[in-house]
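Homework-ish question, so no full write-ups if that breaks the rules, but can someone show me the predicted structure for this set?
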Amino acid sequence: MNIFSFTSSELEAIKLSVGVAVYSSIISLPFALLFGYYLARRQFPGKAIVESIIHLPLVMPPVTTGYLLLLILGTRGFIGKWLYAAFGIKLAFTFEAAVIASVFVSFPLIVRSIRTAIEMVDPSLEDASRILGVGRLKTFFRITVPLAAPGIVSGTILAFARSLGEFGATITFAGNIAGETQTLPLAVFAYMQVPGREIETLRLVLISVLISLFAMALSELYIRKMKRS
Amino acid sequence: MIQVDIQLKRDNFDVVVKETFGMGITGIFGPSGSGKTSLLNAICGLAKPEQGFISINGKKVYSIDEKINVPVEQRRIGYVFQEGRLFPHLTVEKNLRYGMKGTDNNGMFNKVVELLKLGHILKSKPAKISGGERQRTAIGRALLSSPELLLLDEPFSALDVHLRQQILPFILKIQQTIKIPILVVSHDISDLLKLTNRLCLLKQGRVIGHDDYHVLLRHPELQASFSSHSLINAVSMTVARVDEESGITTLSYGETENWIKVVCEKSRLTYRKGDQIKIFIPSDDIALSATRLPYVTIQNQLEGVIQDIIPRGNVRICIVNVGFPLLVEITAESLKRMDIGIGYPVWCLFKSVAIDVAS
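A: Not a homework solution, just the prediction itself:
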């Protein structure tokens, strides 16, 4: 049997994984920029609490994160119930649920990385920009973001890779439905449960490694290019 | 015109300033930690005074009583920082254009690039250019944001003596070209005097004097502020004659008969009759004589009358009116030996090479 002839459910798992990771990174990024900026630059009451809540998924077992999401957003959860009643939206055990689980689990990583990058940007350059007549928001996009770009990119890649590997929260909140929520790690897990499926397992593991390596290489290339210019 | 009437709390002292600054350059002078930068920060909006108001050209930008606090980006102020603060990810050209609004109908960009001689580095990043070029870019960037007021915070401190000489003439030219108030902060009196005679002295957050330099010098209580600094005469003069053969340029001041002869390489190349130039003569490079000396190599002998004598340690500063006030620093001993005093006619002697020219 050829090691590179994928079955349709395997291809589906690869597509799903990349899809979840891409959506999760895209959704996380704007929020991470907002939180990263405020945590880096502002002092406000309750800052420590906000920080702790953001970082919670980093120290909690992912399964518990997934369970909490289920409690809140599941069809019987207090937000989920309302979503279903008002809009007919069912989140738990869907592709969207896999994305949401990934967002929560990878969010602390991307926020941390962006926050550190913004802290490295000299705030006096932002002052200089404002004195030149450019408002706060434009200053953020014209000065802060470009100067923090390497950290923002590597944070996003980190979040992407973490989403790609997300298991615990996903299986709890999104389930393990082939073709719908079964991402690469879940497929690997499913194969491992069946005796005689070692080759398939290895193949998926290899694919995961390759995708992660590719993402990291891209970010490294980008950062090098930034440094050169 | 800028009106400042503020009280600003600092960690170790309060800055309490109630002053009006007019057109042209005002030098803000004081030792480190006297509140100079705090004053500039309050004017531009980076610091928030606890009391009072600030108005620029009659418009209040800050007032505690009227609850006005115009945001930094709307105050239309050009601020040149000590370290330049160029944006490292942008080229010199993009830095210069950063604060420009709308289309550049009057060709301001080209004018500023030419004035500050930045044409050859427009495509370079700030890391690749010299300290002097960086400072010029920072000045240009501030000017192109069409400010109503220009603040310069220690614009020379990051530059060596040679580069300072380069930046000075640019700032003088700006003052002639763009009619806005300019505040220059420095802890180096000779740098400031090359730019302006109008000084505002700060000490521990308080203004202790704000007037023409020659007037301030006569206040005994302000003497301490100037001590240990070499006093410089900065005079704007008109080129009256250029002698290409000898390399000597003759300058005149108004209608006076006292002509000053300047000798330097540049004088031959740059100046034309009628040009306005600013010259600097250190006060301790000038000697006094009771009579005109007929046989002497010194080119410049200016006749004048002693207006005032200010004691300063064991030296005496004579203010001699030679058509304009000239500061001459001599020892107390010499003054006694010559037996001269206020009202006496004297000749001020200095070599042409002692004169520095802003060019």
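Now go work out the reasoning yourself. Hint: The interface with chain B takes residues 122, 124-125, 127-136, 139, 142-143, 146-147, 229 of chain A (CB under 8 Å).
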